[in-house]
Write a structure and sequence with these properties.
Two copies of one chain form a homodimer. Chain A has two domains: 53 residues, Arc Repressor Mutant, subunit A, CATH 1.10.10; 141 residues, Orthogonal Bundle (Tetracycline Repressor, domain 2). The longest helix of chain A has 27 residues. In chain A, 76% of the residues lie in helices and 0% in strands. The model of chain A has no long low-confidence stretch (mean pLDDT 90). With 204 residues, the first copy, chain A, is mainly α. At the A-B interface, helix 7, helix 8, helix 9 and helix 10 of A face helix 7, helix 8, helix 9 and helix 10 of B.
Chain lengths: 204, 204
Amino acid sequence: MGRRSDHSRAELEELILSTGSTLIAETGLAGFSAREVARRIGYSIGTIHNVFGTADRLVAAINTRSFKDWAASLRERLNAVGPDGDRIAALVDGYFGFAREHPHLWTAIFDHRLPPDGGLTEADETGRALLTRIVVEEIARAVGCEVDDEVAALSRSLIATVHGHCSFAISGAWALMGEAAPEAAALARVREALSAWDVCLTQS
Amino acid sequence: MGRRSDHSRAELEELILSTGSTLIAETGLAGFSAREVARRIGYSIGTIHNVFGTADRLVAAINTRSFKDWAASLRERLNAVGPDGDRIAALVDGYFGFAREHPHLWTAIFDHRLPPDGGLTEADETGRALLTRIVVEEIARAVGCEVDDEVAALSRSLIATVHGHCSFAISGAWALMGEAAPEAAALARVREALSAWDVCLTQS
């Protein structure tokens, strides 16, 4: 158990974030409370408010941390397949993989709504943009194009495509519909879109 | 304000469902309580438990009602474009349309998780299957195939594709990513998949 004097502000921030992340991973967003995080680290709720502001801001920071971990695990999978492997399959697998390994953390990312007056910080936005950037680079590579607005728009749309399949898988909606292979379906849709978009490869 | 003797059980069921639906549409799932529904209709909370069981079962029944309304509005749009119109565009528009017109009801469908021991009733499942059935019929028509397992699997995957785009649109994730036209992107992805799947049309 720590006490105020034991930690620098940066250490305290890390302690709150990692403890909060563990709590959401255990109980889901519904079971999260800043008070329980305070109890687990042996500080008062006031300390958490001092460091993160509202509980909503703390959840946003935890979700940003999840995004960063997700991006790191995606990067690892891509490194594992190498430049000549099936990088698109690795991308889809990486999207599903994080959700399957950390269903509560993944669900919290999409279930949490910030209040209208409490937008994301610049650090949140930078941390969350990592995942999209990895996808944009891979899609540009797959269709043989430079990264431009069109490739970025296609990439966002493919993220949404895979997200829809993954979200039905995690929520159990697929199981209700009798679907056994959501990830294979997502990959098939992505490949169809990439075939249709092979404009730069065919021009070169 | 009604009282016990004013309503038959069927009338009471309808009154609870419509009042509950209005409450979720106003406040979202987070602001929903069976007690507030009881207050609004002038019955005790015990009456609601008698008719629907737990609050979770009431929410499931309200969500089934939303599914039915959604299917009806989709059917209307399809009827409005007629057999020779752009029925695929009407389908995507109908998916987005319900979500845009009733964001809280739409979000409640996907945010609500039933407890492990409290599955859907058969009436819930029948009511919810209507929407999927409409999509399966339209996709079979678009690719010129009979309805079979493959067409059903493709249809579920296209629902997931559109769902992913719609869910980013409703949650505001698209806006954060700078995407202005999620519905057009969803439609483009669906058309690419249908072109790739035109097997029955080309065989006939």
